[in-house]
Amino acid sequence: MFERALDLAHHLISRRVHPGALVADATAGNGHDTLMLARLVGPGGRVYAFDIQEKALCRTRELLAREGMAERVTLVLDGHENMGRHIDGKLAAVMFNLGYLPGSPDRQIMTTAETTRPGIGEALNLLEPGGLVTIVVYSGHRGAEEEREAVVDYCLRLDQQQYTVMHTNFINQAHHPPELLAIRFRPGPGQ
Fold this sequence. Notes:
Elements: H1 5-16, E1 22-25, H2 32-41, E2 46-51, H3 54-67, E3 73-77, E4 91-97, H4 113-126, E5 127-137, H5 144-156, E6 163-169, E7 179-185
Parallel strand pairs: 1-2, 1-4, 2-3, 4-5
Antiparallel strand pairs: 5-7, 6-7
Helix pairs in contact: 4-5
């Protein structure tokens, strides 16, 4: 079923994203979420993939090219807190996979509360009614617990009339298992 928080995030996203949709991967990393989103949106959709590391975007570009999905994706060398500067339109979904670039020997470059909180705010401002944001939070590395606390606190303060927030974790796993937060923008009357 769901062995990892990321598996559940992928499941939720796959139920929300349809062919032709506009979506974003807020943390491109090695490109696996970007690739999944590109497959979901189909040839008529668009994925915006953000990362602050050129190395991450290169890895993502290579993966997309191998899979024949590059034409569906716009790669953006910028932080997720600046999404609104690059996207014109409403998003069906946004994925965050926090932490550092998997497989990179340099673990000094990572997401932080200072950019993730405004990044989530940007994502919510860009969501279409019924849109979904998933946030996979890793808390086993330096600075991660502060980021986790900031993300959870931010989500706790969201207006329940506008957003539904789910927080899931694997309570019987050792070594700081990842957690998932999923935020759905609730359509208002007439939307």
